Amino acid sequence: MAGQINAFEMAQKQFDHVSGLLNLDPQIAEVLRWPMREYSFRIPVRMDDGSLRVFQGFRVQHNDARGPNKGGIRFHPSETFDTVRALATWMTWKCAVADIPLGGGKGGIIVDPSTISTSEKERLCRGWVDVMWKNIGPRNDVPAPDVGTTPQMMGWMMDEYSKLVGEYTPGVFTGKPLGGGGSEGRTEATGYGVIYTVREAMKHLKMDSTKAVASLEGFGNVSQYAAIGFVEMLGGTIAAVSCWDRDDRTAYTFSHKDGVNPRFLLSITDQYGTIDKAKAKEAGYTLEDGEAWISKDVDVLIPAAIEGHVNGETVKKISSRVKLIAEGANGPCTPEADEFFKANDIFNIPDFLCNAGGVTTSYFESVQNDMNYYWTKKEVLERLDTKMTQAFDAVLEMSRREGVYMRDAAYMVAIDRVVKAMQLRGWV
Ligand code: NAD
């Protein structure tokens, strides 16, 4: 849209703000403002009807000073090079704040995956690898699933890469299916990771988690396991969750007088995160409009659906009881919402710290692939807890030491680590 800032300009602006806080040398900042390598390419695919269709593909490698680039491949009809650049940049900061030895990458193809057949999808996935295989690899760049891509697609891509290099190389893609080189615990990882950071934030805020009440936006992969973790690990209560109803094309909030039972709701939720309204009502759930989740009388809000829903308008509905916001989704809170949190002393766990459990477990997947030895779910989740707790502590420490907001502190920790790695390698 005319006049609207694009995602990459936003990523650069955020970086400029924090490089100012860090007093970063402008020459070093110039290196980090831009991706190190960018690939834009065409993928010819033979369609089922015999015709040849040419797809536009991308891969951006933002910075690999700390280790191989890491980040998903999106299949989306309105994918742009700048979106991929922005997402690759954010991956550098997310991996650095989680302190996993990886850099930032992102890829994509301009396609609506729902409009092509399974065999066309497989040829498109293999085609992406046929172009990119010399520039990706376990020591170089490790893609993963993202919007529009699935574990099965990662299986095909890993297979194509393995054939081209002549040896089984599972560590080149993560997010693979279980039994096909995937890791235990990946399904729970992001939601549980959110809860590990919530637990640490509650300790810091001296909140009793067994008396805490939370409300969540969304009931997809992240929200489901965040809700389960909030109840089962912290002993807290869930007042409400929400979801987007695919039939009605409307959002609803679900609450229960005795608190939401997330395992029950999970049993009546489809693969897209839509809760069955009739079954919920039958079980005594109350249904309200999609925004009701934000105005519940709770201590903790966990927006875990989509970006921008906690904004200058909706934030006015937040109860004065709320002490903590945990950003399960990417970018759920706008800068106006941030100003409200600062003014009202509401503690924020920023997205790229809060939801880093997913990428951390992807890293564990490639470690297990390298060893060709696989951990139990318990081992994966214990390691995840340790990494998330350490990441939270580092950001909190930076926030206290520099007297800055948690979001700025997370950026400062991340950028500082990447700059150090570049200096140690003699790049800058
Ligand atoms: P998902 O597709 O599994 O679930 C999304 C949920 O949000 C669904 O319940 C859907 O009904 C709901 N929703 C969509 N629009 C809504 C609306 N307008 N109002 C209320 N609910 C709405 O997605 P997910 O994997 O849980 O991801 C959620 C967010 O977390 C996204 O921002 C994603 O980028 C981010 N994230 C996910 C992971 C991961 O590992 N899954 C990792 C990091 C970040």
Tell me what you see in this structure.
The structure is a single chain. This protein has about 425 residues and is an alpha/beta fold. The chain has 2 domains: about 35-180, 3-Layer(aba) Sandwich (Rossmann fold), CATH 3.40.50; about 185-428, NAD(P)-binding Rossmann-like Domain (Rossmann fold, 3-Layer(aba) Sandwich). Helix content is about 45%, strand content about 20%. It is built from 14 helices and 12 strands. The strands form 2 sheets. It has a 7-stranded mixed sheet, sandwiched between helices. A 5-stranded mixed sheet has the order 1-2-4-3-5. Helix 3 links the parallel strand 3 (about 70-75) and strand 4 (about 105-110). It is globular and about 60 Å long. The two termini are about 35 Å apart. The site of nicotinamide-adenine-dinucleotide has 23 residues, from helix 7 and strand 7. The site of nicotinamide-adenine-dinucleotide (NAD) has 23 residues, from helix 7 and strand 7.
CATH top level of the largest domain is: Alpha Beta
* CATH architecture assignment name of the largest domain: 3-Layer(aba) Sandwich
The major β-sheet equals: 7 strands, mixed
Bound molecules: nicotinamide-adenine-dinucleotide
Question: Which key phrases capture this entry?
Answer:
2 domains, 5-stranded mixed beta sheet, Rossmann fold, 12 strands, 7-stranded mixed beta sheet, binds nicotinamide-adenine-dinucleotide, 428 residues, alpha/beta
Describe the structure concisely for a colleague.
The chain has helices at 7-21, 26-32, 81-97, 118-132, 151-165, 186-205, 221-232, 262-267, 277-282, 335-343, 351-354, 357-371, 377-402, 406-424; strands spanning 37-46, 52-63, 69-76, 103-110, 141-145, 213-217, 237-245, 250-255, 286-289, 300-303, 324-326, 347-349. It has 428 residues and is α/β, with parallel strands linked by helices. Helix 3 crosses helix 14, helix 6 (186-205) packs parallel to helix 13 and helix 12 packs across helix 13.
